[in-house]
Amino acid sequence: MLYWLLQHLTDRLDLHSAGDSRVLLTARTALGAVTAFLLTIAAGPAVISWLKAHCKERVDSASARLNEIQKAKNNTPTMGGLLILGAVVVSTFLWGDLTSRYVQLGLFTSITFAALGAADDWIKLSTRRNGVTARQKLVVQTILSVLVATALYFEHRSKPAGLDLVWPIGGGAIPLGLGFIAWATLVMVGSSNGVNLTDGLDGLATGCTIFAGSAFVGITYLAGHAKLAEYLSIPFISGCGEMSVVIASLVGAMLGFLWFNCYPAQVFMGDTGSLPIGALLALAALATRQEVLLVIVGGVFVVETVSVILQVLCFRTTGKRLIACSPLHNHFLFRGQHEIKIVVRFWIGSALLAIVGIASLKIR
Prior knowledge:
364 residues, mainly alpha, 15 helices, 2 strands, globular
């Protein structure tokens, strides 16, 4: 791993690094993003060619009208999350500190949630079933999230504010104690499903992840730097700066994937990509104690999820639909807006929310 080479180099040359990392964290964060991007671009054509031969999308939603609108997407290669998460894992192995608990959890989250998504996608492709059942998926997501949450609990319990729920505006905090595990599980499952629900149009979830992920590259870096964390009045979480390498690798991989996923998409990420992406964003928020900030920065994912919940509740209680079709992006699709216009407008919203989220760190 290149981390060890850099460690030897910095020890020999007595180079200084940011925060409490001894090994050029700023450079490794940037190199993680660039490496993941280049890996995705380089491997993309071959992976897409293989997926085209073995993993073709079947448009088969519960809405006949939506199936008609999106019928041109039939037989588009899916499970592109293999390309994304492959680049993230390789880049993290190269540039991350593998002794860091945060890096270990990032790799565990990437691999296990991707495996769950891949199983779901494969069942859809190889049978007439619509993947694993919602209950089965939720159970596995919960089990994986509990494992990550428990590991984070033991990592954070000795750190100041390590188990506090922090309100970004005003600096208020609520000690969670052992309840952190339940809370962290809820955040991970919710975020994972939020990105999954948003992944319905070419480039939509990909672009929104780039903006939200970029914000959390900065947040994880700042939270792991004692002086910068103190300046911004955010919790200093020793060691969590290493998460910036993982999240930067995710952003780089998503930039590379967008090259192939923008309209008209050559490949879809499928649940193989969307489930671990949401879980990784949640992990970054939990590591930095900025879950409330995730609601702001990932506002598009939140709105998409809420639109589904409200649609179901409204239909069950009144027999009427609140919007034309959920998630929200489908509502605009049903209203005749072009897919590109919808996606770009959601990107704009995601970019603005990322800016607002970062800006809120200094509002006290």
